[in-house]
Write a structure and sequence with these properties.
CBS-domain; about 15% strand; 15 strands; alpha/beta; Rossmann fold; single chain
Amino acid sequence: MSGRPRPAQSILDLIGDTPVVPLHRVGAGVPYRLLAKLEFLNPGGSVKDRIGTAMIDAAEANGWLKPGGTIVEATSGNTGVGLALVAAVRGYHAVFVIPDKMSAEKIRLLRAFGARVVVTPSQLPPEHPMSHYSVARRLAKEIPGAYYPNQYENPENPGAHYRTTGPEIDHAGGTSLAAVVASVGTGGTLSGIGRYFKEHRPSVKVVAVDPKGSVLGPFFRTHELQRWTPYQVEGIGEDIVPKSIHFEVMDEFVEVDDKESFLMARRLAREEGLFVGGSSGSAVAGALKWLSERPIPEGSTVVIVLPDSGDRYLSKFYSDEWMLEKRFLEEQAVVLDLLRQKTFTPALVSVSPTTTVSDALATLRQHGVSQVPVLAGLENVGSLQEEDILRSALEDEDVLGRTVPRIMGPPFGEVARETPVGELLHLLKEERALLVRARPGGEPVAVLTRHDLLNYLSSRGGSRAI
């Protein structure tokens, strides 16, 4: 015998038995042993691989899904990937309905597995006919041979974690295990884990982490359904109370906001080498918050479930520009910081309404710029683009002798010197350039372009230097 493991029959055999690792730097100074359960090392990159196989196994056993059938599911992305794995291996078609707030990477990933993806508006009430819940139910009725797993009500959602994730955590945590912490969405992960520990080790605390804006935490405390408000973190929290969440096996709910979640996820990548999603940041931030308020015996072990991989959020919170635009970075540069670096070209090059087009073109070429504001004293009355001058001169050679109002465009947008750089990122998506004033309504002092902003961000090494 070589001692080597037997070859797996398919990728599905590699789901589960994920490792745990200690959090050394993020957990520094905390008198507990923090262990991260690395669910993002499942083949599909998330904890949802576990329920994907469990729900389809049950559907096949009960005759609800026949060979060549279609799996239809409403998902924030990760459950879809888990189901797409099963569909690819077992020869099913797959259609997933996903809210439009989810990352482009998730949509591309689902399509990479051969699935059809239907995107719906993300801020609709659940009962709306265009919500992702309603659209998935409708498609499941319309498509011949379709099966709708419905993770929000399917007992195999918590059941999979009762049978697998709970025992794995029990074994990894050892005798000193005092708490398990996980973020909640459908609630299946923590409901299954919670049920396991209530039956086998009731002394272990089961702690849920919920994003601010979700209805789950408030419902746990008041038993009343409150108003859902939008948040950015994906895959956790809900605007409904799913049947798959079992509050009776949960001891505590902790709320964290988007900023806490994203900054912690970035720390996990940079300080622990764990490239995880925002819900993992939520779980760790929530665990540290709970431990600061509800101390357990020193030296106890706490296992924190990290649900998914960071590779599906590269265009979002792993993007410095996105974080700046959403104002999630702790320290933000302002326009004045950018102006201090702008050493080439005068900060403000402008023309007046009485300037001839010929003189304006000469000004543009003298300073090596392609656009200028048209200022009448302090008033921002228009803008002039080199390409507009050249196009107009080709159509009418006499235009060069006329004044700039003849061909000027609308005025640039305006910002003050204390405007955060994150706001520039948003504004410069719509504007070619911005006029900077010393203060709102005050003296014009500079023009900023997209080129200026990109130079600043690249020279400063992104958000780490801002």
